Fold this protein.
Amino acid sequence: MAPKKRSERKRKTETETERPDESGGGDASEHRIISKEKTEGKGEHKYIGAHVSIAGGLWKAVEASVEMKGRSFALFLGSQRSWKRPALDSAAAVKFQEACNSHGFQPNHILPHGSYLMNCGSPKQDVFEKSQAMLVDELSRCSALGLTQFNLHPGASRDSSTEECLDRIAQAINHAHQQVPAVTTVLENMSGQGSTVGGQFSELKGIIDQVRDQSRIGVCLDTCHAFAAGYDISLPGGVKSMLEEFDKVVGLQYLRAFHLNDSKGKLGCHLDRHEDIGRGQIGLNAFREIVNEPLLDNIPLILETPGRPGFEYAEQIELLYSLCED
């Protein structure tokens, strides 16, 4: 805040090894060994996967997803360490598309993630301009790869008001949409940490309302971020309640994906600290509700958990499918 080098995992807590109280949902370790009979044919309409590395080439993300038996995946489209990146290699793009076609990954089940350097809500003109240019570049890469949607953290207000921040984010999205056709921009809800926006559904709605082409804007709901922002999905029926609130404020027609992460922090802590499924404050029951919720059929459900040895992405994907009731 994925197989791949541990240093490239899409998370911000790689050096953290402590675990919070697991009483919220039980110890997921009891689910590590799951027979194939318990998972085969289950969750037919659920597309569970993980954020995977592109080390060695974009197509390696596809191979990693296949190896862990994921049915969807997320990836970065370039380096996270620099504003300026080499142009997309055309041969690599072709190889990526061939791999996706060969293994049956559809574009709507692939969710590229934006660079953490971007802050389209920044009041600093140089940062805003670089972020806007990077958004155009990211959407262009999606288009060249045959991908249809792109996920990003909305931004942070820094020394400006929330309203001004939302306005700038919408401005950057509208500009990028003018430059690149077809690709949908997917906003991620946030934990409310610091001056980040998007922790409350009303803030996401404030951006969406200003996007000119409403058919090209969506939302990815992150379970850890939602819980940390105060949406209690750990309660029985909590996932359904959150989705009802989202529908009331934003609209379910905008829901494009989910990030599946347990939370190190407690409800409303505003900390973006991901934990492995069933080992955090959210607990396993919420994820059982997610994988059995019909409203979440046919969209990517992406893991971004630490994935510690013995309970990495393959094991967590298998666990999640074992929770499916059909």
